User: What shape does this take?
Amino acid sequence: MFKSKKGQVTIFIILAIIVVVAGVSIYLFRDTIITNKIPVSIEPVQINFLNCIERGTLTGISILESKGGYIENPDFVPGSVYMPFSSELNFVGTQIPYWHYISGNNIEMEQIPSIDEMNKQLESYLENKLMNCNFEIYENQGYEIEADVPKVDVKIKNNNVQIDVDMDLSVSFENEIFLMKDFSVEIDSLLGNLYGDAKKVYELEQENLFLENYSIDVLYLYAPVDGVELSCSPLFWNVDEFYNNFSEALVANIYSLKNKGREDDYFALNLPVDSELSFVTSTEWPKTFEITNADNNILVAKPVGNQEGLGILGFCYVPYHFVYNVRYPILVQVTSFGETFQFPMAVIIDRNMPRKGKEGSSSVGEVSDICEYKNNNLLINLYDSDLNPVEGEISYECFGANCHIGFTENGQLNGFFPQCVNGNVKISSEGFKDSYVNTGINEEEVVVILDKEYELEVELYTDNKLYSGKAIVNFIGEDSSFSLVYPEQKEVILSEGKYDLETYFYKDSSLKFEETTTEYCTDIPSSGIKGFFGFEEEKCFETVIPEQEIDNVLVGGGKSDYYFIEQELKNSNKLILRGKELNVPNSLEELTQNYELIESQILGVEFR
Assistant: This one.
């Protein structure tokens, strides 16, 4: 009996010890044992933090979509006069990195972010954002909140973005303490799907250059490119006028492009993407519009058929072919269910043709930036014709690159230039003609005498009468040529040097010539054995002269070569050109005769 009671006491003692140990353990490890059930008083803090994650993620997604997959932009690369694109497009105040552009020194560049890079950018953005989540409202109520540095993991999927945050968030309120460690949020977003469609559009553009081809169509519609017109008078175009029309037409036509439409819809691209597509450009965005054969902002096409020796044609025509280089940006917008992903790219038309596609393009970095390697020391001295120092801007041009060197002080610049075979130092100074100097690699000093420019008013006379009708005046210099369309243009800027001067006076006309057929006979080698021994026979051809209606006829002018001396230009305000007045032609033969006569008429040159 004694033994039995003793055994019962032992069991109770053991149970008591277990209860005490359990109680102490629960108290000591209360923060880690019960972690799944959040106290009701702590839940608002958890919800607030999850909302902070959600808001930060939505903001980060919005930035990625609006900036071509970037939150932090790559290093900025400036453009140049030669290529107007920097590495970013300013769209309503947002700097969006180009996915494809041509750098200022003519290097083809790509900067397309991958999904992994987008994940990392959003992770970094959220880690900074979550450090600033606001718990002030709870701290004012007596909560004590301690947060560690967050570690964020992002996975961008086609239809959602998954966010996992590893961070200790300790919350105590009154007698309750709770430790939260892992947080997960899933945001419904089409970011991944839109990025995939955007990349498809980009790759199709690189392969097919459909944006360049649409742009070339607009160029042919709104600017003179190739053509022939029946006329015995030259044709001329004001570059500013059709450039403005072309720029506005580009905006309208590019904006009209869409993804889906009928096969016969010119603006329907029908690309293999499900998202809606929009293409945007603006007349305010940086662009270049170059015409390789424009003189003084005027395009002139001269007639054929009225020159001496070509009277056999019996009619006149004006052929023209102008070569354009066009570079401008397009913003591509990919949209689905209210979400839009956008990225810019450069459209390049080179000599009336699309730039080379992706397969033929140089990869990034193949062409070195010569402006980075300035290791040739050169002293530049600038003077006017009286040997007074002149201030100017110095740059260096080679292989399409334009490197800014600096500005002179007291007419001198001692600077470092790139080493480049056949490179040119360009000197620009207000009031002086631009000067180009080809320098050798081992040269140490260059002295340049700049030619001062003078603006004169041009007045035309036919014999002794002031001429007020239409005319074209050509100034053909040794290194530059330009034309005036008179009387719309009356000012000319000249510097000392030799010019070939040509003036053509025109008058409105209503001459109309019916279609005629003329026969032209000539001697040609005989066929067969006779031709072998040099015999000839007469062969006649019929030439059909199409109907022509001539709006302007040549009624005077003249030609001369003249060396303009600086003293003459400096002391004068007007340039007087006196041409010969001719009879108003009433037939095609008389018109052709006027063109022949003008070749021998001496143009008088005077100053006032």
